[in-house]
Design goal:
Helix content: under 10%
Strand content: over 45%
Distance between the termini: 40 Å
Number of helices: 1
Oligomer: single chain
Radius of gyration: 28 Å
Amino acid sequence: MQNQSQWRKGWLYVCIFSLLVICVPQAKTAEAALDGSEGLVGNRIPVGTTYTSSTYDPTFDPQNIGDGDWYSIWKVSANTGIIQMKFAEAVNLKSVQVSTGGIGDRYETYTIRGLQNGYWRNIATRTFHVTTGGNQALTPISVQIGWYDGISIAVSSTRNWVMMSEVHLVPTTTSTPPAQLPALNKNEQVSLSWKPIADVDHYQIRYGTTSGQYTDTVTVASDTYNNFTVPNLATGVTYYFAVAGVRNGIRTNYSNEVGGMRIRGNPFPENTGKGASSEYYRNPVEYTMDGDILSKWKTQNNSKNATLSYGIRYPLYIDELQFVITAPVESDITYKIYEQGRNGNTLIGQKTVHVAGSLSPVRIESIPIEPDWYQLLKIEISSTAAPVEVNELLYISDRSSMTGLQATPQNGQVHLTWDAVPEADEYRITYMKQYPDVLNGQTITVQADTYQDYTVTGLDNNSVPYYFVVNAVIDGQNQNYSNLVHATPMSYATGDPVPKGTIVTTLGYYDNKPPENTIDGDLSTYWIPNTGDHKSGTINYRFPKPVQLSAIQLVSMLNVPGKQAFTIYGLQGNNWNLLYDGKIQAYFNPFGGVLPAIPVPPGKYEGIMILTETKTTWVTFQELLLFYGANTNGTVLTDTYSSVSIPTVSTDTY
């Protein structure tokens, strides 16, 4: 068993491993979303839908239009075709959107029929002139609003073949479903979360052990939408869940389906580095630790042999590894676990398991390894018949893990709270500026009763974030680290978001970093201009109505810290009045480089225009914040930070 000082042995090797680099813009062309579904709105066709087609070319099955994959298609080698969908549950519709593709200037007519009370009837017809090549989402086709048990789409084209890549269903506003998030599978519990929707009386969760077939229902209150633990689930069984809101006895459409499994084990720390000897581009290795039991990593060309590598940002005490896999056919699969070191790899665990073959995720027997602190793991997998596929990897440890660590920035200090660990004698707080060098950070040992109230003092203001982890000590043994959180102490107050309905425009943006990122309330997202080699640009904000302002505040970061130039105008009447022309020191702060507030002549403004320029690196403008009211005294010009309410960094509001 290694002691605390020996944890450092793997740190020299972590730098060699390709760990995830956060929030650093790099010179690359814009990339499409993983599913490639540019321009599609509404929701995918519900899981459990049955598909039929008049005819289709081999491998181009009709169910391809509902699989969420922009590049899998339904295709007919004729200029007409009909595809029919019957839903497992009735769906409310106001429009239907089709994505088509291929080359050839053509006209295509889509006729949509809806199934109600056992009868099919026409509900929409529309003709499109398609000129561009490649997959494209057509404008949604408005239908007669109503609840439908199914739809059919007949298409005729002036081209001699027809195809669809995806079909999306657009509901009315009152029937828009909750946006379902992946289930959390941890410590033999399945927790569901979704984004709340307005004015619902309650939510209805349906679930079952077969995708698209729900046999059980549970009702939860309207304020229960975050980490709801589903009761009475069997261990090791894959369950499928969908959620709907209910208003006045009428439900919304159901959300997209997610999967979960009661399973022993804990998720690996966020931002654990991941690598694989081979992977299919649509099933990357990140899926093995994304918390989604249905997503999976698979090898290129369905290989039966592969290697996984993981670099953990700080030491983790592990006794066993728990895999969830997919093996379509009966196989014997061998797992060899190695610790990677300076002088080679050391075998620390090995096991061969027999799987019967299933298209659903299955839990295999956990694999014991030599109990110790680890940072670099290598896993070799070989299968006798099934291609290598891993849905999720968790770890099992007899050392307690910290949960719930939150950090609140203050003036020259950061306030910490965390969940108590039973039997903890004391806690160790480790913090540092250099991310993610946890082992070289400063350490403070605090008493066991301080978990709800400890403040780290003597920190630098207004520059880069500090990173914090905490671990308990029980009977002299160090327990596993908490999640890693960040906070940036500031000597000045932080402004408020722009008004809802603000319109933001620019001359362009680069690398999928649009100007809307600067008003989304997330200080870690940003706009990159598409002008001046990305080192200069202009961004314009138009408020929905004039607002009373006393100061504005810019949130911006530079990968190479330095002076960032800003010229700022305020719109009053028909005049753009100069408010500021100067330079402000900006740092690398991927979580929100909040700069000092800039007082403006108190008054009502209809908009703000910002011209910005850097010399050292690209413009990375994160957010515009405002100070409302007419008096700047005691707010942005003096130290009143302690009187300002600041959200904790563990929430989704930073």
